[in-house]
Amino acid sequence: MSIESKIVIIGAGHAGGALAAQLREQGHRGPLCVIGDEPYLPYQRPPLSKAVLKGATDTESLILRNAAFYQENDIEVRTGQTVSAIDRNARHVTLAGGESLPYDFLILATGARPRQLAIPGAGLANILTLRGIDDAARLKSALQPGRRLAIVGGGYVGLEVAASARALGMEVTVVEREARLLARVASEPLATFYERIHQQQGVQIIRNANLSHFEGDDHVTAVHLEDDRRLACDVAVVGVGALPRDELARAAGLHCENGVMVDQDARTSDPAIFAIGDLSWRPLPVYGDRMFRLESVPNALEQARQVACAIVGKPRPAAEVPWFWSDQYDIKLQIAGLPFDADRQVVRGAPEQSKFAVYHLRGEQVMAVEAINSPLDFIAGKQFILSQALVCADRLANMAIKAKDAALAIP
């Protein structure tokens, strides 16, 4: 490893920007180039579905570090440029315009893209997805008071957009193909809670529903379901998950599964190439190196630190517990961990009071916690997972006992 190595980062999102900063912080002094296909410096995406849509913040405030930071740290940022190929033997990347850039180490941080619907009418105007600043700008201009919004997909993005749209005075309908909201990413108690909250806010929720087609001439005017129901709308948002942008990696012959496969240093099957962020299919040390693809800011930051330390030859940072959050209305959800092989749930607190937590246990070990307006449960659950502490389910459910005092022992 070398602090003088030539480094190219493909992807100027949160992960790519954080890595560039980390490399300099960890002592790297060599040439460093960040290439992004959007016309913006690295920025944060979580506010796009919330504060940006509601007009509470502008896109300029999303920028993580201003241009002066990159200039002062001798980091070249190429915005609005696309990499067309990776030559692993020659160790260079080719830009769409034909220019070639050499590297000693290459980092892929290309993120994920929204999954598209392959149904008739999906190409009509005002059928939108949300991933980047330009997507948010288009959606924000379409979200007007009194207009009708159909959201396809009852995941976190769809529900966050629903909350923002209701705050703007829109009529909102969420269509979910599964039997409940958040079916792939949250517990049933949490899904039931969010359904009640959204319905109280005036959102119509339709479950167990598959789309047939979109209706419209140029712009979408309705969503049709397979049971022949027609939902009139002025705007539609599709939020049915995301796919890793791994085309460059696959074309270069890197090992890919659900994203680019990496090790604990975020290194790919090529020792000179790393992959981080939403793109990477990575081992989770706190779960026995189980492989998983995470879509979260904390994951991007953790892997940025891993790669920076690996490149400059410093020890690998301590493993972290995966965590996530979501803001909807005045409700803060914090999640720590993943419920791998959990065999029971313990609900602590009062869902009807919008302050509770769902602990996912495997035997007496906490695998994950979902905390609604309950930061102490989030903190306790995160520590339980990291320490692999054994807990008493009855004590955990007892609100007279602090969550952190439910531990029995640490193996």
Automatic annotation (TrEMBL):
Recorded GO MF terms: oxidoreductase activity, acting on NAD(P)H
Keyword annotations of the record: FAD, Flavoprotein, Oxidoreductase
A single GO cellular-component term on record: cytoplasm
Domain FAD/NAD(P)-binding: 6-304
InterPro entries: FAD-oxidoreductase/Apoptosis, FAD/NAD-bd_sf, FAD/NAD-binding_dom, FAD/NAD-linked_Rdtase_dimer_sf, Reductase_C
Any Pfam family hit: Pyr_redox_2
Name under which the protein is recorded: Ferredoxin reductase
Organism: Noviherbaspirillum sedimenti
